[in-house]
Write a structure and sequence with these properties.
five-stranded parallel β-sheet, globular, 186 residues, Rossmann fold, alpha/beta
Length: 186
């Protein structure tokens, strides 16, 4: 059975290593019959969460702010799988991804108990460092996030050793890992 996959690309580089991981992932996911939509957050007008807890009153416009999150909300709500894709910035996800993800709380506000929709989740991350200790803070964040949301992590690709844009193109095994992860979704 095909799945709907919503990809949140937190990379500011249009031709960067994270985008190459995403392209390989999409190749595999679509080959397996899944539908994908990718949002390049750097190109979008997304404001930070106001912490107002005033959203959730209108399912057509979950947040009180009117910006490009309104393009993401429907895809997120329909998605079976959410892919968080980001370069590693200071041992965490990019600000672009964090900003957009924070704004997804407006969807939880649509329910009386602020319950987040249950999703399968994937993390795709490119980074300069390539050691287990380098990825440890991101791993802790991702595992904590999925646990608290009640989401099911169905895969992670940590692609280390990629500083310059395009460096990952010399690492076909990392791209193949992303493609195989996409292909495994059914």
């Amino acid at each position: 059975m095909s799945k709907k996959i919503c990809i949140l690309n937190g990379s500011p580089r249009p031709q960067g290593n994270t985008k190459a991981l995403i392209a390989s992932f999409i190749k595999g996911a679509e080959a397996a019959g899944n539908e994908t939509v990718c949002f390049d957050l750097q190109k979008m007008n997304i404001h930070g969460c106001l912490g107002c807890c005033s959203g959730g009153k209108d399912s057509a416009h979950p947040c009180v702010q009117r910006d490009d999150m309104e393009k993401i909300y429907p895809a997120y709500q329909e998605a079976d799988v959410v892919v968080l894709a980001s370069p590693m910035y200071y041992w965490g996800i990019s600000g672009q991804l964090k900003c957009a993800f924070d704004r997804l709380f407006a969807i939880a506000e649509l329910t009386p108990d602020y319950e987040n929709p249950h999703k399968d989740c994937i993390l795709l991350m490119a980074a300069e460092g390539d050691t287990e200790s380098n990825f440890a803070p991101v791993k802790a964040f991702y595992e904590g996030l999925t646990a608290h949301l009640g989401w099911n992590s169905i895969g992670v690709v940590y692609a280390g050793g990629n500083m310059e844009a395009g460096a990952i193109l010399d690492k076909p095994n990392q791209l193949k890992e992303a493609e195989e992860l996409g292909r495994s979704i059914s």
